[in-house]
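From the shared-data thread, chain only:
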Amino acid sequence: MLLGMDAVEQFRGVVSGSAWSLDEGALAIAAGADPSLQPGRWLAELDRLAEGIDSFDGLTRRLFVQEGFGGNGRNYYDPRNSLLHQVLARRIGLPITLSVVCLEVGRRVGIALEGVAMPGHFLVRHAGTNRYVDAFGGGELLDLAGCETRFRRSTGMQLPFGEHLLPTATPPAILARILENLRGVYRRGRPADLDWVLRMRLVLPGAGVEEVLELGAAMGRQGKWLDGAAHLESTVETWPQHADRLEQAARSLRAHLN
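Structure, as tokens:
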């Protein structure tokens, strides 16, 4: 069983390697929320889903027609929507976690798929084509016009749409986006969960001082004032340009002991 820092360290070990896969990274995230998680069980489920698939159309039919994967629009902010093993068990999730299922089944059968980090809505692209899968929409196939419709519906933005808004997402970026979703959910009164999410986020590229400060605050909300202050002070050398903010936040935590 993995608890707290053990799950964070396992996650660090997975993504620090040179040959990790997206399913392994997503399950390592999920272990932060579920100490009883057994990754092998869920890797085997992905293997099962991939059995007998020999085409892109066969993949979408298997996942979204036969197996019934789709978006959880009724309870979008349920944290289980961001935990890969829960998505596999319940057949519902967020756009990005459903896309991970699609990507990982495709990888198993040699179908080249790409995650697409469109603002506001994550998609899957059949590599080298203009065929996109909206996993949250039950596997609906989209062309560029369909992607634009999704973009405007989810963001409300009226800026010119084009392929520049459909960038390929790297595996680390996909994991970071999953953690950002959990970060938003756990800000709502779950500081112990926010703690491990932020620690995992700091392992990946693109994190910065805002995550450090939020982690210190989450530690303080758990009554870990000295630990939180020490954590903040330990990062001053990494972000010397933010030394004043970090040191002030550390002093604020220590003030709880006065």
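The chain has twelve helices and six strands.
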